[in-house]
Amino acid sequence: MQTWIVVGGIIFIALLARILLSRSGGGALPYFSRETLLSDGELAFYEVLRWSIPEGVAISMKVRLADVLDCSSAARQQGYFAKVSQKHLDFVLYDVVTTRILAAVELDDRSHQRRDRQRRDQFLEEAMSTAGVSLLRIPAAAHYDTRKLRDLVTLHSRRI
């Protein structure tokens, strides 16, 4: 009787190990860590943006668009949520106390000249406008004027 319990336990453990190994592909996962969250160009802009925002405002980077925009369950069933669930915004400005979204910032590099990217940008502008969230589009550059950027952020942000 005890032999059957031991054999049953061994078979159970073997089956469990097989299931767990098959879920992980049987080997190490293919992931590795990125060095930084931002590219060199994004980092250069981020440094200027940090100095351009008023006190009480914070910046989040690479925010999922679905964390900024939402839609009704009926619209979800029609596929509208799927249109925002896999996209992200370069930066989102928010109130540090309430986390109220004040504006989103897109840094437009050369990739925004591609036709597919222009369609994505047009959709993004329409969706953000419909939701009442300001979208600042900043052309990527070698240098940025902190004062001009501060004026732009203040002008386009909700309730700063």
Description:
With 160 residues, the chain is an alpha+beta fold. It folds into two domains: 1-32; 40-156, no CATH class. Helices cover 46% and strands 19% of the residues. The chain contains six helices and four strands; from the N terminus they run ααβααββαβα. It has helices spanning 2-23, 40-52, 73-77, 80-85, 115-131, 146-156; strands spanning 57-64, 88-95, 101-108, 134-139. It has a four-stranded mixed β-sheet with strand order 1-2-3-4, with helices on both faces. The longest helix is centred in the first third of the chain and has 22 residues, at 2-23. The chain is elongated and about 80 Å long. The N and C termini lie far apart (75 Å). The mean pLDDT is 86.
Give, in spatial order, the strands making up the sheet with the most strands.
1-2-3-4
SSE sequence, one letter per element: HHEHHEEHEH
* CA distance, first residue to last residue: 75 Å
Number of domains: 2
- The DSSP helix count reads 6
Could you tell me the radius of gyration in angstroms? Answer: 23 Å
Broad shape:
elongated
Chart the SSEs and their pairings.
Blueprint: H1 2-23, H2 40-52, E1 57-64, H3 73-77, H4 80-85, E2 88-95, E3 101-108, H5 115-131, E4 134-139, H6 146-156
Tags for this entry?
6 helices; 4-stranded mixed sheet; alpha+beta; elongated; 160 residues; 46% helix; 4 strands
